[in-house]
Design goal:
The chain is mostly helical and 85 residues long. It is built from three helices and no strands.
Length: 85
């Protein structure tokens, strides 16, 4: 619960230990959280060239391009049913 004034806090909340973000004072959950943030940030940054390479490979492969064109043509040629009153 969020309170406006420090005197409104319960005794249990007042007795929480001070959070220390230095390596010696970190609890295992804090260490895991920090390492997870660092790992996912690096994975996101390093995976961008791989996604770019895969995207370029798909867009420049003739076999895949012909299937995309055929799919688009078949979607355009399919007549839609019309209801005449």
């Amino acid at each position: 619960m969020v309170v406006k004034e420090p005197q409104e806090m319960s005794d249990a909340v007042k007795n929480y230990p001070e959070i220390q973000w230095n390596l010696q004072g970190m609890r295992p959950l804090q260490v895991g959280l920090v390492l997870s943030v660092i790992a996912t940030s690096l994975a996101g940054i390093l995976s961008n060239p791989l996604f770019t390479l895969a995207n370029n490979s798909v867009t420049t492969t003739p076999i895949l391009q012909s299937s995309v064109v055929n799919t688009r043509i078949s979607q355009v040629e399919t007549p839609s049913p019309s209801i005449n009153p």
